[in-house]
Structures are given as C-alpha cells and as structure tokens.
Specification:
Lyase 2-enoyl-coa Hydratase, Chain  A, domain 2; 2-enoyl-CoA Hydratase, Chain A, domain 1; six-stranded mixed β-sheet; single chain; 16% strand; alpha/beta
Length: 257
Amino acid sequence: MELSNVKYEVKGTTAYVTVNRPKALNALNIDVIAELKRAFEAIESDDAVTGVILSGEGEKAFVAGADIAQMKEYSALEARAMATAAHSVMNSIEECTKPVIAAVNGFALGGGCELAMACDIRIASETARMGQPEVNLGIIPGFGGTQRLPRLVGKGMAKYLIMTAEMIDAAEAYRIGLVQKVTAPGELIAECEKVLATINKKGPFAIKLAKKAINNGMQADQSSALKNEIELFALTFATDEQEEGMAAFLEKRAAEF
C-alpha cells in the first residue's frame, strides 16, 4: 500500500499509523483523510493486527488541525464534502473492531483533537496541547467534535471548550477525562504499546464485543443499550474464549486466548 501523507507499518500484531506532514504540523487535508481511510480499511481486513497506535510525525504535533490553506476558499458544498469524508474516517476508527490508541504528541487541535477523540483510548505526552479552536475562524468543529467531545467530557465542559476555543494542556485534558494517561514525551509510544499488550492478554472476541456494546450504547437510550448488552453478554457464552477464561480462573492460572 503506497501512501504519501500517512505512514503505515505493522510490527508484530500492532499497526502503527502516523500522519506524516511534519512541515504542516501534520494538518489534515483531503489527501490525508483519504489515506487514513485506506489505512484503517487495511487494518480491518488484516486478521494478524490486534491493535492500533495512531500518532503524528515528530514531537511538535499529533495533528495541529485541518489544512486551513486548503479550506479557505471552499464553498459550502466543498466544505460539506470534506466534512463528510472526514466523518467517514472518524467513524471507521471508532467502529474498528480492534482497539485504537491515540498517542497524542504535541498539538491536537481542531481536526486533530477530533481524530484523537475517534480513538478508543487517548494517551498524551506531557507536551500535548488540545482544543477545538474553530470559532476563532468563524466556523464550528465539523469532523465530529460537537458530538464526541460532550460524550467524553460532558455537555457543559464541551460547550466551554468549543465556545471559548481554549487550548488546554495534558494535565487539564486528563483532569476532565479527555485523555486517560499522561506520560513523558520519550515514553509515549512505549506506554501505548504497554496498554495494548495488556489488552491483548484478554479475550479478543470479548474486547471486540465490549467496544461494540459501549459504542452502541452511546447512540441509544439506556433501556435499548441495556438490552443490547444482554444479547452481547449472552453471545460470549457461545465461545471457546469464555470456556478457557472461566476454566483458567477456577484453575488459578493465566488464560490462554
């Protein structure tokens, strides 16, 4: 797979996806969006891949935002087309059947913050800076920010961050629940790998269904979400994973999935 703006590499069972436009602080343009879509299509179809680490090239930026130089002259129809393409990528990441960890190095602003929020888990470098500054440009978040941010940090905090365009540091992002861990810059990828290694020791089908149950529930009322959980819970009892996991527990040994 030939990509110009995204690096894609599989090491062992982990896919590493890196936005690779460091001179533009890894800004998202239409080409990057298309290549991210191709990368996650490859991940979904590769049974050897069990997890993903998504990052940005260099230490300055995860993704500093959308490419404003490209977007400046867009018509409303062109803006709609770009947002639609971006939403398709974000949905692919969110719905990926493998766990996806965002390694947030440096700036994750606008589309970059939205890209990180589409991932399952966000681990940030101490140097990370996150925010949704779109109103400074006379626009609103268009790659999922108005919907994913309140689901992660609550409606009030999301409105505050989007309406003030405030940029927050890693410590504040952790405090409000936008990221799950903060590490030293040189330890960021290693920490992401450590978390994936922990997840990989669990039942892979159970991880897939847990992610599905959470994602489905966020789109439904609680009653429907709980019914969905019952069905997915029951489904796990038709698997070898459940037999091995419970047998290992009772035999006081590590499960072998």
